[in-house]
Amino acid sequence: MSNILIISGHPDLTTSNANKAILDAVRARFGDNVKIRELDKLRVNGKFDVSAEQKALVEADVIVLQFPVMWYSISSLLKQWIDDVFEYGFAYGENGTALQGKKLLISATAGAIEDVYRTMLPRDVSATLTEFENTAAFTGMPLEEPLYSYGTTGDPDNPAVARAIGEDHGKRLIERLEALGV
User: Fold this and answer.
1) Which of 41, 34, 25, 27 is nearest to 163 (CA)?
2) Strand 4-8 vs strand 34-38: parallel, antiparallel, or unpaired?
3) I need a surface site. Which of 61, 62, 99, 107 has the fewest CB within 10 A?
4) Nearest to 26 by CA among 44, 4, 43
5) 81: Cβ–Cβ under 8 A, 6 or more apart, which residues?
6) Tell me: the pLDDT tens digits for 17-69?
7) 18 with 165: CB under 8 angstroms?
8) What average pLDDT does the chain have?
9) Residue 112's pLDDT is what?
10) Cβ neighbours, 10 Å, residue 2
11) Are residues 147 and 106 in contact, defined by beta-carbon separation less than 8 angstroms?
């Protein structure tokens, strides 16, 4: 069985319904075969323990970046993590082969409903995720088809809707991971 590493880029997972439900579903299905790095808990005084993060990446076969789309991009927390951890000599450049061959799966949630993207915006969520094509190519990671869900902000008076979307997303993520042979 492959080692799955999920990088949770939600800036405050305690306030999340959908992303938390996704992680709960994956934990329930894969148990000890999944490691989840909750970045909102791992950044101390504005910094990550880069060597610990790199060690987790080296031990993984499949890397999932799980995050909410924020202003049509990744969260600043996840962006900082990538900037800090994907160092020259580790992820790219001379001797930077640590990530080569590891499967990369992008799993994102968008707060707005799909209709907003269709009627008010020039691009849908998938366009937001294209930046990872370059990241994957540069680091030698095969990029899997991204997985995303809309409408995860939901009604603040009814968080069950966002949680249900997260639970559905979690099932689809599990199916995708199982299809990858994990």
Assistant:
1) 25
2) parallel
3) 61
4) 4
5) 7, 9, 39, 43, 48, 53
6) 999 999 999 999 999 889 999 999 999 999 999 999 999 999 999 999 999 99
7) yes
8) 93
9) 83
10) 16
11) yes
Distance set, CA 10 to CA 32, 46, 97, 106, 142 (Å): 22, 15, 27, 13, 24
Tokens coding 91: 């992820």
Q: Is 69 helix (H, G, I), strand (E, B) or coil?
A: coil
Structure tokens at 116: 């907003």
Residue 55 has a pLDDT of 98
Q: Answer yes or no: is pLDDT of 1 > 70.
A: no
Bridge partners (DSSP) listed for residue 64? 6, 105
The structure tokens listed for 176 are: 């995708």
> Which class for 43: exposed (0-12), middle (13-18), buried (19 or more C-beta within 10 A)?
middle
Question: Structural domains in the chain?
Answer: 4-180 (3.40.50.360)
Structural element, H or E, at residue 87? none
Q: Global pTM? A: 0.94
